[in-house]
Amino acid sequence: MTAPSRVQWRKSRRSGTGDNCVEVAQFRHSIGVRDSKAPNAGTLVFSHQAWAVFITHIKQNNEDA
Predict the structure, then answer these.
(1) pTM of the full predicted structure?
(2) Within 13 A of 48's CA, how many CA atoms are on the CB side?
(3) 17 vs 12, 32, 60, CA distance in Å?
(4) Which of 4, 6, 14, 18 lies most in the core, judged by the most C-beta atoms within 10 Å?
């Protein structure tokens, strides 16, 4: 895994200007997710496939709402 300090973290375009959201980064073989309020508290790491399934599920549920 690429060191989290060497990747570019980004917030959702739907996020406000505050620090109360999650940030996402693309590592070489995975996706990292961290809390923007506590970026040094740890990173959740998902495979690209698991992340794609998650995003697809979120988008489908938002369309149904």
Answers:
(1) 0.75
(2) 6
(3) 11, 21, 26
(4) 4
Percent of the chain with pLDDT over 70: 83
What is the spatial distance between Cα 3 and Cα 23, in angstroms, rounded to a whole number? 15
Reported as half-sphere exposure (CB side, CA atoms, 13 A), residue 54 has a value of 9
What's the CA gap between 6 and 18, in Å, rounded?
A: 23
The DSSP code sequence of the chain is ---GGGS--EE-TT--SSS-SEEEEE-SSSEEEEETT-TTS--EEE-HHHHHHHHHHHHHHHHH-
